[in-house]
Amino acid sequence: MSKILLAGGAGYIGSHTAVELLNAGYEVVTADNYSNSCPEALKRVEKITGKQIKAYELDIKDIKALENVFEENDIDSVIHFAGLKAVGESVEKPVLYYRNNIDTTLSLLECMEKYKVRNIIFSSSATVYGEENPVPYTEQMKRGTCTNPYGWTKVMMEQILEDAAKAQKELSVVLLRYFNPIGAHPSGMIGEDPQGIPNNLMPFVAQVAVGRREKLTIFGKDYDTPDGTCRRDYIHVVDLAKGHVKAIEYAQKNKGTEVFNLGTGTPYSVAEIVDTFERVNEMKINHVYGERRAGDLPESYANADKALEILGWKTEKTLEDMCRDTWNWQKNNPNGYK
Ligand code: NAD
Ligand code: UD1
After folding, report:
1. Nearest ligand to the C-alpha of residue 235?
2. Active centre residues (catalytic)
3. pLDDT for res 198
4. Rounded to two decimals, what is the model's pTM?
5. Ligand 1 atom having least distance to the Cα of 35
6. What CA–CA distances, in Å, run from 10 to 177, 190, 191, 304, 306?
7. Helix (H, G, I), strand (E, B) or coil at 255
8. 5: helix, coil or strand?
């Protein structure tokens, strides 16, 4: 079975994808500098699956170190998760974000060309639809205007990958635009482990639930939405991970660039997330309403038809599953992997 290189494979989405790839019979090699993750996540993936991972600790910007991975392994396809992803931090440190996110992509493409590796799956984001496009987002919409450097790195990396596939006819590029991944593996052994104060909603809710934070602030209740809070397309990370297995199968059979939304197509509001988390886990989440957060859009959700039509992929898990599995991970690992 073919060998897949997961760049940034120890992270939240990479570790869940490793489980699904190993379960589907692929061999997994990871390359990660553990800047936002730890080797323990990979050990747990091995426990869940009963299979081995070949893990390299390196900075993907370091092309010599990366070449060694391609030299030592007969890589069939690359999944590129390696990136910095904190929106607020990207506003403070734009150069760091452009350097890390763009350079990792260029290093991977250079090594792929040298070692004749033809397939790359890229972790893009719904953020590339920007401010102009109406919901639900469809893949043929033009990329829009982003409100922060993190988003722009995704726009630029999509462009770089598309250009590479135009120039190298044998290349297959699959751009996966994730919506809002939440939840954890049902075993409770792997999950999202943000460093410091979480920026994203679900990790914050989970840390309030476990007593690490006092209360959640819901950012804004005067949006033009049914209950006044923002609506997002939350997707269970295991469904998202399975989408990568489908994308690999697709890349192995096709050439050129293809873009897929990975979302459920159904938006839920912040208030609905809090209500559902409270109901399925039989607890109260201390919360208050605050000001809107700069840069937030009222609504973001996918039209998920294309992934179903072409990849034969759709989500299977419910919002209840997402809330239950998040809490299962957090209560079993109150301090994450530490
Ligand atoms: P994550 O931070 O958990 O994983 C990213 C991994 O990449 C980490 O293990 C980190 O250590 C590693 N990494 C970063 N820079 C590196 C470098 N230069 N060399 C080697 N390793 C490096 O994040 P995630 O949530 O798993 O996200 C994975 C990808 O999906 C990212 O590119 C992210 O931007 C994208 N994405 C995430 C979300 C989300 O909500 N989680 C949404 C849309 C897109
Ligand atoms: C954010 C990023 C997006 C990125 C995605 C995944 C912004 C503007 N967007 O998406 O670019 O791809 O994360 O990393 O940062 N909320 C609260 N209280 C909180 C936290 C969040 O009310 O403490 C609300 C937000 O206002 C939003 C919703 O919850 O309405 C979801 O927020 P979040 O999880 O940060 O995701 P996005 O903003 O959709």
Report:
1. 1
2. 150
3. 96
4. 0.98
5. 11
6. 20, 10, 11, 27, 29
7. coil
8. strand
Q: For 249, list phi and psi in degrees, rounded to 5.
A: -60, -40
Supply the pLDDT for residue 49.
99
The whole-number pLDDT of residue 303 equals 98
Residues 160, 166, 132, CA angle at the centre, nearest 5°?
Answer: 50
Q: Quickly list H helices, the chain.
A: 12-23, 39-49, 63-72, 87-92, 94-114, 149-167, 201-209, 237-253, 270-281, 305-306, 319-332
Residue 253 pLDDT greater than 80, yes or no: yes
Q: Which atom of ligand 2 is nearest to the CA of 181?
A: 6
Show contacts of 87-91: CB within 8 Å, 24+ apart.
Answer: 87/148, 87/150, 87/151, 87/199, 87/295, 88/148, 88/199, 90/148, 90/149, 90/150, 90/153, 91/148, 91/149
In the beta sheet, which residues pair with residue 79? 6, 121
Segment 276-281 mean pLDDT: 98
What is the tens place of the pLDDT at every residue in 216-248? 999 999 999 999 999 999 999 999 999 999 999
How far lies 218's CA from each of 88, 182, 273, 292, 327, in Å?
17, 17, 11, 8, 19
At 110 the pLDDT is: 98
Please give the distance, rounded to the nearest whole angstrom, from the Cα atom of residue 200 to the centre of ligand 2: 5
Classify residue 84 by its DSSP letter.
-
Q: Which amino acid is at 13?
A: I
* Tokens, residue 124: 């893009």
Cα–Cα distance measured from residue 269 to residue 53, given in angstroms and rounded to the nearest whole number: 38
